[in-house]
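Appendix C: a fully annotated inverse folding record. The material below is reproduced so that readers can follow the format used throughout the book. The structure is listed first as tokens, followed by the designed sequence.
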């Protein structure tokens, strides 16, 4: 799942900002590929035990709406059986991978945006609205549909300095489950 984001062009700083975003995205790709790189064996290798958390093919190109310096944060979240997140949106792009269990992503109209299992994941470009104002399309929730097994999710979040990882929707949309 990829949301398309139109590229913004500003004279004078567009090249610098684009370079920053490209460098940041390259860093994320390198971090995601690190288990493969760290698993290289041969002379000098000792004590390696890499674990690939997810290996997700994404349709490209991957674009963001970030124009400032960014922070890259990886978070491990566990959701109890039949649990879910608050309805929320994200001010920046993020990569989501499922470590254990299954996940359902719901839109505010209760339609399912996607269902993902172990080793699967997706990229979400974050809010497409200026100044990270929530648009109705951006608000969603992540749910664990299992009544017995926890859901573990690894999220690599890219956001401008000072931006929160999520913006909780106020008021919360009606519950879908």
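Designed amino acids, in order:
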């Amino acid at each position: 799942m990829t949301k398309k984001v139109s590229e913004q062009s500003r004279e004078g700083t567009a090249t610098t900002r684009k370079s920053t975003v490209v460098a940041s995205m390259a860093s994320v790709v390198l971090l995601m590929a690190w288990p493969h790189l760290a698993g290289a064996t041969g002379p000098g290798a000792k004590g390696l035990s890499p674990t690939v958390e997810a290996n997700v093919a994404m349709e490209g190109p991957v674009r963001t709406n970030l124009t400032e310096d960014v922070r890259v944060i990886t978070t491990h979240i566990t959701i109890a059986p039949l649990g879910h997140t608050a309805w929320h949106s994200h001010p920046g792009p993020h990569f989501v991978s499922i470590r254990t269990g299954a996940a359902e992503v719901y839109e505010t109209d209760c339609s399912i945006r996607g269902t993902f299992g172990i080793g699967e994941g997706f990229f979400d470009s974050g809010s497409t609205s200026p100044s990270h104002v929530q648009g109705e399309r951006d608000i969603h929730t992540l749910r664990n549909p299992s009544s017995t097994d926890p859901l573990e999710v690894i999220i690599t979040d890219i956001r401008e300095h000072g931006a929160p990882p999520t913006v909780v929707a106020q008021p919360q949309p009606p519950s879908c489950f």
